[in-house]
Protein: DUF3311 domain-containing protein
Organism: Streptomyces ziwulingensis
Amino acid sequence: MVTPTRVVIGLCLVAPFVAMLWVGSYARTDPAFIGIPFFYWYQMAWVLISTVLTMTAYQLWRRDQRARRAPHPPRAPHSPEGGAGR
């Protein structure tokens, strides 16, 4: 079943792959950060970003699983004067 929570989980897990596989977006040396070319510090930044996104996806997944396992309130019994089966 596709839910909004699961879509967000998927985006959190796919984003780092897209960012790293799209080499043309970061295959340059400028802007440098404390003397480190953009190519390198961009990839290092994605290590941290990926960690945060993976943690977020995990927390969302746990919350989703707890919600699915939670006992649902019992249904109200059908009343004899107007319920189903008439």
